[in-house]
Amino acid sequence: MTAGQITELVTEMRADLQIPPYFPELTLQRAVERGVEFLQSLNPVVDLSEDLTGRGLLGSYVLYDINHRTEEFQHNYSWDILRWQMLTPAPTEEEATQDEP
Questions:
Q1: Closest by alpha carbon to 74, among 42, 45, 32, 44?
Q2: What pLDDT is stored for residue 49 in this prediction?
């Protein structure tokens, strides 16, 4: 993800999750970056800037992260993550070959 996309996600998360304005921007940004990395490791073909289910999971991850409870996120959202992974269409052969060097 680009820096601009991360900034956009941080702004969205602050508004959607009602994170107060005094909460440090850098802390929220790092939580979003960790969440993006975690979710992309679980579902590498998804684009979190487009996938609404992924963005919802990201918001939940961010809440757990800023409260230092990410291990609970994995446990509490395991079924949602599995459903998200299963419903993500596999890349077509053409898309798969575009990603190769």
A1: 42
A2: 85
Per-residue model confidence as pLDDT tens digits over 25-34: 999 999 999 9
Residue 88 to residues 43, 85, 95: CA-CA distances in angstroms? 8, 5, 14
DSSP letter at 21?
Answer: T
Task: Report yes or no: 1 and 34 within 8 Å, Cβ to Cβ.
Answer: no
> Is residue 35 pLDDT above 80, yes or no?
yes
The pTM of this model reads 0.85
Whether residue 29 contacts residue 6, with contact meaning beta carbons closer than 8 Å, is answered with yes
Please give the Cα distance from 65 to 16 (Å, whole number): 16
In which band, very low, low, confident or very high, does the pLDDT at 98 lie, cut at 50, 70 and 90? Answer: low
| Phi, psi angle pair for 51, to nearest 5° | -85, 110
Give CA–CA dist 55/52, Å, rounded: 5
Give the residue carrying structure tokens 């459903």: 83
